[in-house]
UniProtKB/TrEMBL annotation:
It catalyses: ATP + protein L-histidine = ADP + protein N-phospho-L-histidine. It is an enzyme of class 2 (transferase). Residues 169-221 form the HAMP domain. One of its GO terms (molecular function) is ATP binding. The keyword Hydrolase applies. The chain crosses the membrane at residues 115-133, 145-164. Keywords: ATP-binding, Cell membrane, Hydrolase, Kinase, Magnesium, Manganese, Membrane, Nucleotide-binding, Phosphoprotein, Protein phosphatase, Stress response, Transferase, Transmembrane, Transmembrane helix, Two-component regulatory system, Virulence. It comes from the Bacteria. The lineage of its organism: Bacteria, Bacillati, Actinomycetota, Actinomycetes, Propionibacteriales. This is Signal transduction histidine-protein kinase/phosphatase MprB. It comes from Tenggerimyces flavus. Its EC number is 2.7.13.3. The keyword Transmembrane helix applies.
């Protein structure tokens, strides 16, 4: 935009300068020619009274003295009525003949212009005083004037470009600021505000953008409160369920159900916390520890359903840009899908691979029927087995919040589903 504005101003200014300077230059050329011809005419007119009053010898001497005078640059020639030529030698041409009839004229001649003054009323007849103005004298000072005009035009063009560049820079800075605010809003920073811009239209855009950010904050606040309230309502039936579990006669079964209810209560509490604090950022955890703990948690249920669970985890910590609770929820959603959508006895595998660039790859695979429609499986709320269809969406959002992504597919030879969660590396704290 900045370069295009400068180009537009340059083109417009150039056209205006050409429309102004070219006629002015031509006018200056005409003025210089008129000035030279006027000076030559006045010089010739000074000889008219001399021709009328001096004898031929004195007139000849006077013309010679005038020719030797350095202050008189114009050559003078006198054509008498009897054909005698005095002063600077010159040809008696048709223009001289025309002037001898009593007309003072100026005519074009090779290399310049001739100025012919008729001296009428003399005893011997009409005499003609001729002077010659060369092309160089006609254009005297014109080249210098063109240079001055050209320099003035260049200065005006440069000044207009500087002003256009400053105006363009101001507009570009305002647009870049609006772009930065819009990008920050898109990344979840709802506190981003557009500053007043020097351009009225851009200022209106900034005001609208600020109003939009405020509206988004209000809507998100309402949504968070709604989620928190809904989650809070779940606590009552959970409490009843916990009391019923503790009242079972089978102590081992009661302890197992109570433990599950407590875990569910913790999950509900976390939902309330997350809903009230809004978008999270900057969290990190050790993926190795989290994955190991969740695999052991699900291994007990896998043993009951005669499922073989294989896990491959690194021996060293694997830091990722996801909080421990979020990563646990992500893995629980993926493993829960395996248990919900594959027959009992279906084997599953969990693998965690550190990435060379930081972060990790979390792979969950099973030997079940796989995905019938991989594209539809990632659609939020879409499910063809009667579930809510949010398990994969939870995993996708967890991966994207860390700067990674989610890839789903079916096994190559053994069949089954294969899900890869790309987890980004946590940011290093600044020194």
């Amino acid at each position: 935009m900045r370069s295009r504005l400068a180009l537009l101003v340059a083109a417009t200014t150039t056209l205006v300068l050409l429309a102004f300077l070219i006629p002015l230059g031509l006018l200056l050329g005409n003025v210089a020619a008129d000035r030279a011809i006027g000076a030559a005419t006045r010089e010739a007119e000074t000889v008219v009274p001399l021709v009328a009053t001096l004898d031929r010898a004195t007139l000849t001497s006077t013309l010679d003295l005038m020719r030797e005078d350095d202050n008189r640059k114009v050559p003078l020639t006198v054509f008498l009525a009897d054909g005698t030529v005095l002063g600077v030698p010159a040809e008696r041409n048709d223009a001289v003949e025309l002037a001898s009839r009593g007309s003072s004229i100026t005519v074009e001649a090779p290399g310049g212009r001739e100025v012919l003054i008729a001296a009428v009323g003399l005893p011997g007849g009409t005499a003609v005083i001729r002077t010659f103005v060369s092309d160089q004298d006609l254009r005297a000072g014109v080249a210098r004037a063109w240079l001055i005009l050209g320099g003035l035009g260049a200065c005006l063009l440069a000044l207009s470009l500087v002003v256009a560049d400053r105006l363009g820079a101001s507009a570009v800075r305002s647009i870049q600021h609006l772009d930065d605010v819009a990008r920050r809003l898109g990344e979840g920073d709802l506190d981003a505000q557009a500053k007043p811009a020097p351009i009225r239209e851009l200022n209106e855009v900034g005001t609208t953008l600020n109003a939009l950010a405020g509206r988004i904050r209000d809507l998100l606040a309402r949504e968070r409160e709604s989620v928190a309230d809904l989650s809070h309502r779940v606590r009552t039936p959970l409490t009843v369920l916990r009391i019923d579990a503790e009242a079972l006669n089978d102590h081992a079964e009661a302890e197992r159900l109570t433990r599950d209810v407590i875990a569910l209560e913790r999950a509900v509490d976390q939902v309330i916390i997350d809903a009230r604090r809004g978008t999270k950022g900057g969290d990190a955890s050790d993926a190795t520890e989290v994955v190991r703990e969740r695999v052991e948690f699900w291994r007990a249920l896998a043993d009951e359903e005669r499922r073989t669970v294989t896990s491959q985890l690194p021996d060293t910590p694997t830091p990722v840009a996801v909080g421990a609770d979020d990563l646990a929820a992500c893995l629980d959603a993926l493993l829960g899908n395996v248990f919900a959508h594959t027959p009992e006895g279906t084997a599953l595998a969990v693998e965690l691979r550190p990435r060379p660039s930081g972060g990790a790859l979390l792979l969950v695979s099973d030997e079940g029927p796989g995905f019938r429609d991989e594209a539809a499986a990632l659609s939020r709320g879409a499910s063809d087995v009667g579930s809510t269809g949010l398990g994969l969406d939870i995993a996708r959002r967890t991966a994207e919040s860390s700067g990674g992504g989610l890839v789903i597919g079916n096994g190559d030879q053994s069949g089954g589903a294969r899900i890869t969660v790309e987890l980004g590396a946590p940011l290093r704290p600044e020194a």
